[in-house]
Amino acid sequence: MKIGGIIAEYNPFHNGHKYLVDEFRKKNECTHILSVMSGNFVQRGGPACIDKFSRAEMAVRSGVDLVIELPAYFSTQTAEIFAQGAIKTLDSLNCVEEICFGTEFGMTEKLMEVAKVLTGITGNYNESLLKNLEQGDSFVVSREKSIKDNLPHISSEFLKSSNNILAIEYLKALILAKSSINPCAIKRVGSDHNSSEL
After folding, report:
1. Which pLDDT belongs to residue 192?
2. Is the per-residue pLDDT at 193 higher than 90?
3. What contacts 24+ positions apart, CB below 8 Å, involve 14-17?
4. What are phi and psi of 138, to 5 degrees?
5. Distance CA 102, CA 64 (A)
6. Smallest Cα–Cα separation from 160: which of 105, 119, 85, 101?
7. What are the beta bridge partners of residue 29?
8. CA distances from 28 to 25, 102, 127, 183 (A)
9. Residue range 75-84: average pLDDT?
10. 3-state secondary structure the chain
């Protein structure tokens, strides 16, 4: 038996979510998949477009075996706190071997490089961040510059992509929790995150 975890909002559940569930089950040979899902309120505090019970049912009908609600305290927060709450929830179950998340580029190792810099495992992120902040840059600009000071091969596009940002926060949360859960990034296919085209 191999249990995999997915962190999601399913707001609403769509074909990209179905693709992620199917790919995760196939590539990682998961016998069971559970999802930690936002309830009736999602990131940035907005109400979900469909109630949590209907969204959970959509996920179960599409291959997820169990849906666990992420408390609103975490689900309505920034990406960092959202990720910390979801990872703590998965880790506390003591049965999840891997988590899977969609990203614009895939590249689990490259995402992990960034997470290791941000958590201080490698490089000198804090020193670089302080220097950039003292030069008058905003936190967001200083953060990106500080990552690139430590990892010059990482592009701005990689750091600014919506799903990559969340994936990096998942990896940071795994590191900080000293979790044994292994991460797996699956490359997004089809439309971009903010695309108005199908």
Report:
1. 60
2. no
3. 15/190, 16/102, 16/188, 16/189, 16/190, 16/191, 17/59, 17/62
4. -65, 165
5. 16
6. 105
7. none
8. 6, 14, 38, 11
9. 95
10. CCEEEEEECCCCCCHHHHHHHHHHHHHCCCCEEEEEEECCECHHHCECCCCHHHHHHHHHHCCCCEEEEECHHHHCCCHHHHHHHHHHHHHHCCCEEEEEEEECCCCHHHHHHHHHHHCCCCCCHHHHHHHHHHCCCCHHHHHHHHHHHHCCCCCHHHHHCHHHHHHHHHHHHHHHCCCCCEEEEEECCCCCCCCCCC
Amino acid at 80: E
Give the position of tokens 């997470």: 115
Mean pLDDT of the residues in the chain: 94
Strand order, beta sheet including 96-103: 66-70, 32-38, 3-8, 96-103, 182-187
Angle, alpha carbons 10-16-21 (nearest 5°):
80
What distance in Å separates the CA atoms of residue 77 and residue 92, rounded to the nearest whole number? Answer: 20
Distance CA 112, CA 139 (A): 21
**What does the block give as tokens for 1?**
């038996």
